[in-house]
């Protein structure tokens, strides 16, 4: 979700005004995902690197996160949406940690859509965290070196249990991953748009999905194999 700051600056407003406008775009993205039957939507809200931003901006982002959790959780629950926060939760103050735990517990058994909010998240952190968990199992004698493979590693990554990442959308015009879902994006399709996040509406989301639907995903196979043989293409 990139481009909030520039969206505000174009309107001669403070960057934080853009973050507030970005919350409306989050609402429409969640609505679109829920209505169209997307199983899982992950939003990159706050990276592990975002702490280095000016203190005032960080504090507005934390406040917004907390406010939105409070105001939206009931609605998410009513709509059968499961909320999960992925990232290093221990970096947040204890009140926010409690709100996160309560929201996750309330929505834990919902199944129409899983909404992951990546907060204090980094793809490298996710990989290191999974490695630590595997090493803990090994230290306890519950895992051998030969058992380390994509399946056992995948069981320790933050998005375990969710479908493969199909489509990664980045708004705001930059063509990079910025430490988002590094492990998960191995076979993802990328979609980049100049649109700044607060302007990213349901039609634009639909356009991205339409573009994705036109692509041939080969997962290492040849185009001919995909077209002519009865091979089920899969990431793993
Ligand atoms: C993304 O918008 C939102 C967050 C990181 C929370 P930016 O704040 O990065 O907006 P730009 O890139 O400066 O326009
Ligand atoms: Mg940015």
TrEMBL record:
Cofactor stoichiometry and binding remark: Binds 2 magnesium ions per subunit.
Active site positions, chain numbering: 2, 50
Record-listed Mg(2+) binding positions: 2, 189
GO molecular function terms listed in the Swiss-Prot or TrEMBL record: transferase activity
Keyword Iron: no
Keywords: Cell shape, Cell wall biogenesis/degradation, Magnesium, Metal-binding, Peptidoglycan synthesis, Transferase
InterPro entries linked to this entry: UPP_synth-like, UPP_synth-like_CS, UPP_synth-like_sf
Catalytic activity: 8 isopentenyl diphosphate + (2E,6E)-farnesyl diphosphate = di-trans,octa-cis-undecaprenyl diphosphate + 8 diphosphate
Residue sites binding substrate per the record: 3-7, 15, 19, 47-49, 51, 53, 170, 176-178
EC number(s) reported in the record: 2.5.1.31
Presence of keyword Cell wall biogenesis/degradation: yes
The protein's required cofactors: Mg(2+)
Xref: HAMAP family: ISPT (MF_01139)
Function: Catalyzes the sequential condensation of isopentenyl diphosphate (IPP) with (2E,6E)-farnesyl diphosphate (E,E-FPP) to yield (2Z,6Z,10Z,14Z,18Z,22Z,26Z,30Z,34E,38E)-undecaprenyl diphosphate (di-trans,octa-cis-UPP). UPP is the precursor of glycosyl carrier lipid in the biosynthesis of bacterial cell wall polysaccharide components such as peptidoglycan and lipopolysaccharide.
Assembly information from the UniProt record: Homodimer.
Family: Belongs to the UPP synthase family.
Name of this chain's protein: Ditrans,polycis-undecaprenyl-diphosphate synthase ((2E,6E)-farnesyl-diphosphate specific)
Native species: Glaciecola siphonariae
């Amino acid at each position: 979700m990139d481009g909030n700051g520039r969206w505000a600056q174009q309107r001669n407003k403070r960057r934080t005004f853009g973050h507030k406008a970005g919350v409306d775009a989050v609402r429409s993205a969640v609505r679109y995902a829920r209505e169209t039957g997307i199983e899982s939507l992950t939003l990159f809200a706050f990276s592990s690197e975002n702490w280095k931003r000016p203190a005032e901006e960080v504090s507005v982002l934390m406040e917004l996160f907390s406010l939105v959790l409070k105001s939206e959780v009931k609605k998410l629950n009513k709509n059968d949406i499961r909320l999960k926060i992925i990232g290093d939760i221990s970096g947040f103050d204890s009140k926010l940690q409690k709100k996160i735990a309560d929201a996750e517990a309330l929505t834990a058994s919902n199944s129409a859509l899983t909404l992951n909010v990546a907060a204090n998240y980094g793809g490298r952190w996710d990989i290191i965290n999974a490695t630590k968990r595997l090493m803990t199992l090994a230290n306890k004698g519950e895992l051998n070196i030969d058992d380390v493979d994509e399946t056992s590693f995948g069981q320790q990554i933050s998005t375990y249990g969710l479908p493969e990442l199909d489509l990664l959308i980045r708004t705001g015009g930059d063509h990079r991953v910025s430490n988002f879902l590094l492990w998960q994006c191995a076979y993802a399709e990328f979609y980049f748009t100049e649109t700044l996040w607060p302007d990213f509406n349901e039609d634009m989301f639909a356009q991205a999905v339409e573009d994705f639907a036109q692509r041939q995903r080969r997962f290492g196979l040849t185009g001919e194999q995909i077209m002519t043989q009865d091979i089920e293409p899969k990431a793993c």
